[in-house]
Amino acid sequence: MCAVALTSAAVQADKSKKAAAANEPTRLVLGEQDERREVAAAVAGLDVAKGLEATLFAAEPMLLSPTNIDVDHRGRVWICEVVNYRTRNGTRKDGDRILILEDTDGDGRADSRKVFYQGRDIDSAMGICILGKRVIVSCSPNVFVFTDEDGDEKADKKELLFTRTGEVGQEIGEVQRRERLGGMLRYYYRDAA
């Protein structure tokens, strides 16, 4: 599905020696053209273990700047697509998106893209977890649960699972958040059975 690389320790050691020999790390600057960033070079640049194959599932312009993915029981890839991040905050006026990519014709490449949810409340989302008709999205300081109640692959309901994540001095509420999260997960698993 997605390009996956398994790299041996020997290959890593060889790369480390080459980087050390160059005496400085290779850095890409945003906006610079670099052939290593071209779609055609994306898979070619991966080190893949013997017996495995990496193929390109999706690329720009189908998606931009993915920060996290999950795969559902139907093999669809769900993506946090983040454009409004740090210095680019506000670039996409309608907010960042949760995308669903699917290979509908079986050729191993995504040919369908649906927007499950879009909004400024998930700008810079960094995590996604698909649990049946529920989608958990982490976007600090919040963690949301989106629900597709009618099966149309659009979020019909948004709930705040918990908030104030990553803040200093939140030890008092930590047990309450864990209990609530544990209860929600038990609910999801019970619901799926």
Description:
This protein has helices at 9-22, 39-44, 171-192; strands at residues 66-71, 77-81, 96-102, 112-119, 127-131, 134-139, 142-147, 157-162. By secondary structure, the chain is α+β, with helices and mostly antiparallel strands. The chain folds into two domains: 1-56, no CATH class; 57-192, Thrombin, subunit H (Beta Barrel), CATH 2.40.10.500. Strands 1-2-3-4 form a four-stranded antiparallel β-sheet, with no helix packed on it. The chain is globular.
Write the layout of secondary structure elements.
Layout: H1 9-22, H2 39-44, E1 66-71, E2 77-81, E3 96-102, E4 112-119, E5 127-131, E6 134-139, E7 142-147, E8 157-162, H3 171-192
Antiparallel strand pairs: 1-2, 2-3, 3-4, 5-6, 6-7, 7-8
Features of the shown structure:
alpha+beta, disordered N terminus, Thrombin, subunit H, 22% helix, 3 helices, 8 strands, 193 residues, four-stranded antiparallel β-sheet
- The helix fraction, in percent, is 10-25%
Beta-strand proportion: 25-35%
Instruction: Tally the helices.
Output: 3
The stretches of 5 or more residues where confidence is low (pLDDT under 50) are: 1-17, 19-30, 169-177, 185-193
Number of strands: 8
CATH architecture title of the largest domain: Beta Barrel
Shape: globular
For the largest sheet, list the strands in their spatial order. 1-2-3-4
Average predicted local confidence, pLDDT: 77
Supply the CATH class of the largest domain: Mainly Beta
CATH topology of the largest domain: Thrombin, subunit H
> Which structural class fits the helix and strand makeup?
alpha+beta
- The domain tally reads 2
Q: Cα distance, first to last residue?
A: 27 Å
Rg, nearest Å:
20 Å
